[in-house]
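---------- Forwarded message ----------

FYI, see the N-acetyltransferase record below. Original note from H. follows.
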Amino acid sequence: MLTLNFTKFPTLETERLILREHALYDAEALYAMRINETVMKYIDRERPEDLMEIKTFITTFNDGFENGDNLAWVIALKENPGNMIGSIGYWRTDFANHRAEIGYMLHPDYWRKGIISEALKKTINFGFEDMNLHTIKANINVDNDASRQILIKHGFVKEAHFKQDYYFRGQFLDSEIYGLLNPNH
């Protein structure tokens, strides 16, 4: 059985980025992204009502880490580590099968600069080497070609296309599942 027992939140670094724990001071940046229809176009989640809802969300995320349920990082540039520009992380961890779902989002000002690719590479390595995951999966909206392309670039393979398996805002949506196996297993 997989367990996630980190004594403190693992901060990760890449050439340009700091991947760090969510803090309450990130609430405004996260709220702005979660109500931005450009950011959320293919993220089929309800928009937050207010800043308080986001603060509760951050607290729940951090509690989830402490309970070993999820691991989600703020993406920030090294030159300004207090400024959240996106997030990436694991949730829906299937401990019995050593699988976790990865997800990410980024403020549009930083799109097409290789930031998600850089963060994804680091978090995939962490997932396989430090978390001992066997499989990382991603669930995307079928219209999200940018996400599909970045997953394929990082070695993910399409495992499934589900027809109308997700109900959101009065309609049933299709979804695609991509998977990446741990090359060391």
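H. also flagged this: The helical segments are 27-34, 37-40, 51-66, 115-129, 145-153.
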